[in-house]
Each structure stands twice: as C-alpha cells, then as structure tokens.
Amino acid sequence: MSSDTDTDEAHATDPGSTGAEATNPRATEAHVTAARTGEAITTSALHAAATGADTFPGVLREALNRRGLSLERVSERLRVRGITISQATLSSWQRGRSQPERARSLQAVDVLEEILELPAGALRSLLGPRRPRGRTTPPDAEGAALQILGEDSVVEKALGARFRHFNQETSSLMVHDIVRVGETGTLSGISTTNVLRAKRAGADRAIFVLSFDDEAAEPVDIKVTCGRLAEATYLKGLKSLVLEIHFGRELAKLDTTVVSYAVEVSPSETPATHYERWSRTNLHEYLQQVFFHPGALPADCHRYVREKVGAPPRGRRRIPLSAAHDVHVLTSRCKPGVHGVAWEYGTGTGATGPSGTGDRPG
C-alpha cells in the first residue's frame, strides 16, 4: 500500500499538506460508501475541476476529461490527419509547461478543437504571447512530484486538476506511519501523524492519498484525531483513497500544525508483503512501524529505498522483529524518494501469497 503527502505516498504505503477537530463518523462512513459506488462528487472536487478553466491548459484538460480521450488516442487522431504531435507534447500543453507556438503546433490546436468538439477558436484564443526559447521549469510542487511518481501516476489520476498545486503551501517536517497486519497476513489498518510547516501565510488544509495494491482492500472507517476531515473519497477503479483535512485555522508563514488520521481496511484475500511511502521533499525525520498479529509473524523483514516509484530497491537491510511483534525504521534527514519496509512469510504461518498492499504519500 502507499500514501501521499508532502512526504508523500504510502503503499501496503501518504500525499498531502495539512488542526484539531473531531469528525462525524456517520457522515464520514456515508461519504466513503457513496464514493465507493461512484455516487459522490464532492464540492471541493467540482471546484478543483473548474480551476483554471479560463486558461489554455485548463480548457484543454477539461475538454479531454469530458470527451474521455487519452493523450495516446488524441495523438493518433492528429496523426491520421497528417499532424504529428507526441503524447509528451500534449501532456506539456495540458500541464501548462509549454504552449503551442510553431505553425505545425498551431495547426494541431485548430484540429484539436474539432476532435474535442469545441467551438472554433476556443483553444487558440487562449494562447498567450510567445515564450522565450529554452526549456521551462515546471512548478516546484508538480515538478518534484513528477520526479518521484512519473507521468500519469495513480496519485495524479486520483487528484485530477488538484495534482498541479496540491500541498504546495506546506511541507512535511516529521511523519510517523503505523501499519497493522491482521491474523491472515492482510492489511487491517494504517494510522499516520504528520507535522507540517506553512511555506506561506494562509495555509489551512492538506490532501493525502492512500493507494492499495489489493483491490479487495477498501477503507471501512476513517478517524481524524488532529484536524477536521473535509473530504473522504474512495476511487475504486484506482484503488485509492483521497483525504482532505483542514487544520481548523489559517497558519502564519513558518507556523506548524499536526495532522493525525487512521484508516481501517476491509479484509482482503491477498496477504500484505510491503509498505511504502513516497516523499518529494526532505523530511527531518520519518518513523515507519509495522505491527504483526501473533498468528502471522514474518520470517524475514528488511528496509529499502527507491529513487522513484518503480525503480529498483537499494540499500536493502534486514531489520529485527521486536517482542511486541513489530519492526520499525527511523530515518533522520530523510531524502526525497520511496521508503519501504518489506517482509516474507515462512511455511506454517497463516499468511501465504506473494502480493502486498500499500499506502503512499504525496
């Protein structure tokens, strides 16, 4: 599982920036249930989708979502009409990292308006003046996340328009993840405490994304003990839970706040074998704990890091199981990347199977 915060994603693994106010359990449970069946569209999600709708990237993203077309299909349709524009270029256009300027690109914009069923000039009229030649630098928050997650990640798909700016007003200083593994070896719950610092005055909320490897593992209860839960949306197709937690006040620049939440997970069929958290920023300290049920103790546990999601693990080291049936990893001056704990079951335990589940931060 994985999770996303300004540390950033957890997989087995949290994204987000982030008070103290208890949530209504009934309201939370109802929201999660509705979101699981695709019936819930939150006000904040609608607002996020509309953000930037009067700009070229915003209108392009909105039109692509409305038509349900992937960048690959759009590129193919352009190619059929004799215009070659790569998926990477289209991605840069919709992110606002570059804009069409050359004759061939402007011709592609005109054809895009037809493909996306937009009025003539709807996209072309939104183009700004020509930019200076040379590579443009992506926004800090988005660029750092892309370096760790890559293009079209689960986190990006789960957040949609919010991915571009999510948690850019705060950064995580310390994170403590607690993962609990049940009697059958499957994930039973995750709790996270995140200490955040405001990069600018006015920061008042953070977004966290938890991703699960096992589609049978779904959130059944969410409790926020520090902060106020404003949104809990489970996207079944992406096996991801999006949490928006408000601090309860606006922070002054460099002010700190603590966000704590816990998620219980429904029983699944596949034992968990790892937990990962990705971080796009430096953490002062990261503590990762995994507690195992006495009936599902692992035969071996080890820690590792990845430079980015999908990269080979490195720095693999065995870690001992304590008398409390837990393992932990404490990392000071934790660098950006993916930080994980993995475990293996021997014969004779109640847990079998090769797959894992994860929680990731962003």
- Counted by DSSP, the helix tally is 8
Gyration radius, rounded: 21 Å
Structural class: alpha+beta
C-alpha end-to-end distance: 13 Å
Residue runs with pLDDT of under 50 for 5 or more positions:
5-9, 13-53, 134-139, 349-362
Secondary-structure element order, N to C: EEHHHHHHHHEEEEEEEEEEEEE
Shape: elongated
- Can you summarize the main beta sheet? 9 strands, mixed
Mean pLDDT: 80
Helix percent band = 10-25%
How many E-type strands? 15
| Strand coverage percent | 25-35%
Task: Describe the fold and architecture.
- Helix content is 22%, strand content 32%.
- The strands form 2 sheets. Strands 1, 2, 5, 7, 8, 10, 12, 13 and 15 form a 9-stranded mixed beta sheet that branches. A 6-stranded mixed beta sheet has the order 6-9-4-3-11-14, covered by helices on one side.
- The two termini are 13 Å apart.
Question: Gist?
Answer:
It is built from eight helices and 15 strands. It has 362 residues and is an alpha+beta fold. It starts with a strand and ends in an 18-residue tail after the last strand.
Give a quick set of tags describing it:
362 residues, alpha+beta, nine-stranded mixed beta sheet, 15 strands
SSE blueprint and pairings:
Blueprint: E1 2-4, E2 8-11, H1 25-36, H2 43-50, H3 56-67, H4 71-80, H5 87-95, H6 103-115, H7 140-149, H8 154-159, E3 170-181, E4 187-198, E5 205-211, E6 219-226, E7 228-235, E8 240-246, E9 256-265, E10 274-279, E11 283-292, E12 300-306, E13 314-318, E14 326-334, E15 337-344
Parallel strand pairs: 2-5, 3-11
Antiparallel strand pairs: 1-5, 2-10, 3-4, 4-9, 5-8, 6-9, 7-8, 10-15, 11-14, 12-13, 12-15
